[in-house]
Amino acid sequence: MPEKHTLGSFDQDLDLLRDAVQHLADLTQNAIKNAMQALLSSDHDLAQVVIDSDLVINQLQQQILFQMNIVLARQQAMAQDLREIMAAGRIAAHLERVAAHAKNIARRTLELDRTVDEEIGSQLIWMNERISSMLQQVMGAYQRRNVEESIIAWSSDDELDRVYSKLFLHLLDRMQHNPDSIKTAILLLFIAKGLEREGDHVINIAEEIHFMVTGTPLRSLGSTLDSH
């Protein structure tokens, strides 16, 4: 848990920032879940809910940036506190991008003219659930300032990339052997790429948390982690 400061107002400012970032993460989780549900069930109404919710998410991100600047102007932050304040803004930006990819998945859902088949759907579900789990883990690390949790989440991206690459090749093969599937396959490729990019942003959040707590870039530990 973060140490308390002599000025209670500083702790209140930091708590408000953490709460706002967590709220943004919760909205993002909902967007991830609803976008996939809309895709698999061809639920255009739910897809529109995801698209419309993006405006609220964007507004909350801007509020976090404004709040961050107020704290910077009002408080004389030391190095660790300064890292936490700046991390709030950067984490919020990554969360907004995750939600934007979920919105784009919802938009692709509106363009699809057929239901996603079980073979492709199962891989998309796996990717979506992995991203949701990773996001939950990194936000837990953020709230608890837990470096180990951030490293675990950061290390879990490789399998997501492998599933994406396998799905990418499968869809290319489908297009080559079935020209009638090209439009649907292209939309599914965009959707799969959106999920892969969501994972990248969650990994970036893990890096932000590691630097926030330790002052050390997580990527600089890559060779050390790979050797163990």
Characterization of this structure:
The chain has 228 residues and is an all-alpha fold. The protein has one domain: Methane Monooxygenase Hydroxylase, Chain G, domain 1 (Up-down Bundle), CATH 1.20.58.220. It is 85% helix and 0% strand. It has 8 helices and no strands. Helix 1 runs antiparallel to helix 2, helix 1 packs parallel to helix 3 and helix 4 runs antiparallel to helix 6 (157-177). It is elongated, with a radius of gyration of 19 Å.
Describe, in short, the structure shown.
This protein has helices spanning 8-41, 44-74, 79-111, 118-144, 147-155, 157-177, 182-214, 222-226. It has 228 residues and is mostly helical. The two termini are 28 Å apart.
Q: Count helical runs.
A: 8
In the CATH scheme, the class would be Mainly Alpha
Which fold name fills CATH's third level, the topology?
A: Methane Monooxygenase Hydroxylase, Chain G, domain 1
| CATH homologous superfamily caption | Phosphate transport system protein phou homolog 2, domain 2
Share of helix, binned: over 70%
